[in-house]
Specification:
alpha+beta, single chain, 6 helices, 16 strands, 316 residues, globular, five-stranded antiparallel sheet
Length: 316
């Protein structure tokens, strides 16, 4: 891409540094965040992309950032991006990202349900007896995980483990923020016919606030969130980072009707796919009907939440 240099290519996103027109050197304070149409499930990047997924995630995140700004600052600087990535990219502040996946759950399902059935807990948090798949929790819980290297699985963490890694003040701040973001998102979405069962969010800090560079060693236990702002980054409350359920059809005790990528997760876990997700083989290619249904659910979620017709090239 002209005037930008690739810094990192992740599972589904790519990061580029803008080049200074005078010196030709990369800008060390900003990044161009590009959401691709690649899709991941069960810690694998799938062979087939989902068309327009990157645009849905980018535009829905921008919509949410505006509605969450009173809770936490976000990383977006500008939506003026190169033409070839219009609608699916933003310029953002460069941050040091916390080494924890911050997850909050308002309903019991997925990996949380598996742990609950086995131990009566989720990430070590004791839950009431008698809950089912899809049950609403008495109150949302913070259930962080590790950030595993590519090809490895994230591992659930207890709050005590999070404190050991981040220190008590930062761990408490990001836990409170994650739960607050889920609660705000759920309240807004419920008015539009969507329940947000759980969500994953990413936080970072500006290392310059600590007198550090972006590559300097950082002990997260030294970060005081009252002195160094915690910034919401990446994406927020999208069909990739959250479970969206149709409110009118919510019924505990069975799998829920989803707006998110649960469609393709379900197919991969079904006998029809022939794939063992606990084995070493990569997932099989998604069939056309699964790709098309997943795209339709993403677009439906965007339009239901925002009240706007989806336009893949919408800017701002």
């Amino acid at each position: 891409m002209r005037d930008h240099v690739l810094v990192h290519a992740g599972k589904v996103r790519e990061l580029y540094a803008p080049l200074d027109p005078g010196t030709g050197l990369p800008d060390e304070t900003r990044l161009l965040l590009v959401a691709t149409d690649r899709v991941s499930a069960y810690d694998h990047v799938l062979e087939r992309p989902v068309p327009d997924k990157g645009a849905v995630l980018t535009q829905l995140s921008l919509w949410w950032f505006e509605r969450l700004a009173d809770l936490v600052p976000h990383h977006v600087l500008s939506t003026e991006v190169p033409e070839e990535v219009a609608g699916r990219a933003v310029h953002v502040r460069r941050l040091r990202m916390l080494p924890v996946e911050c997850i909050a759950r308002g309903y019991l399902t997925g990996g949380g349900l598996e742990e609950y059935r086995r131990a009566g807990t989720v990430s070590g948090v004791r839950l009431p007896e008698g809950l089912q798949d899809g049950s609403r929790l008495p109150e949302p819980v913070f259930t962080p995980t590790t950030k595993a290297p590519a090809g490895e699985h994230d591992r659930p963490m207890t709050f005590a483990e999070t404190v050991e890694l981040l220190g008590p003040r930062l761990a408490e701040r990001v836990g409170d923020l994650t739960v607050a973001l889920l609660q705000r998102g759920h309240d807004v979405a419920a008015e539009r016919g969507i329940l947000i069962a759980d969500t994953k969010v990413e936080f970072g800090i500006d290392p310059g606030a600590l007198g550090l560079g972006y590559e300097d060693e950082l002990d997260w236990r030294d970060v005081d969130p009252d002195q160094v702002p915690v910034v919401l980054a990446d994406e927020v409350l999208t069909p990739d980072s959250s479970r969206f359920w149709r409110a009118a059809e919510w019924e505990p005790g069975r799998p829920q009707i989803s707006y998110d990528k649960q469609v393709l997760r379900d197919w991969l876990a079904s006998p029809e796919s022939g794939w063992d997700r606990r084995g070493d083989a990569p997932p099989p290619p998604l069939p056309d009907e699964v790709v098309e249904l997943t795209r339709a659910r993403y677009v439906e979620a965007y339009e239901a939440l925002t009240g706007q017709r989806f336009d893949p090239r919408r800017i701002g």
